[in-house]
Design brief:
Shape: globular
Strand content: 15-25%
Structural class: mainly beta
Radius of gyration: 13 Å
Helix content: under 10%
Strand order of the largest sheet: 1-2-3-4
Largest sheet: 4 strands, mixed
Number of domains: 1
Distance between the termini: 26 Å
């Protein structure tokens, strides 16, 4: 899975982008059948550490449709493990 991080505000609409950036499209092409996840880095206390599931805005399928699947649990994590 390829990962894209964003710095927009927590709580923004999870499906606001129609497609991932071109560099992630290229990475996704190397992993057919997988997915590209958008991670909201404003919800991560350590960018090199644990990423809570709530920090994932959603994922694009790596297939012909490229459909975005929003994460219904997206938002501040109840416990950031710090």
């Amino acid at each position: 899975m390829a990962i894209m991080t964003t710095s927009s505000e927590p709580g923004d609409a999870p499906g606001r982008r129609a497609t991932p950036p071109s560099d992630l499209i290229a990475e996704a092409a190397r992993h057919p059948g997988g997915s590209v996840a958008e991670i909201d880095r404003t919800l991560i206390s350590d960018p090199n550490g644990y990423i809570p599931g709530e920090a994932v805005r959603g994922m694009w399928k790596v297939d012909a449709t490229g459909e975005f699947q929003p994460n219904p649990s997206y938002g501040p994590a109840p416990d950031d493990f710090t």
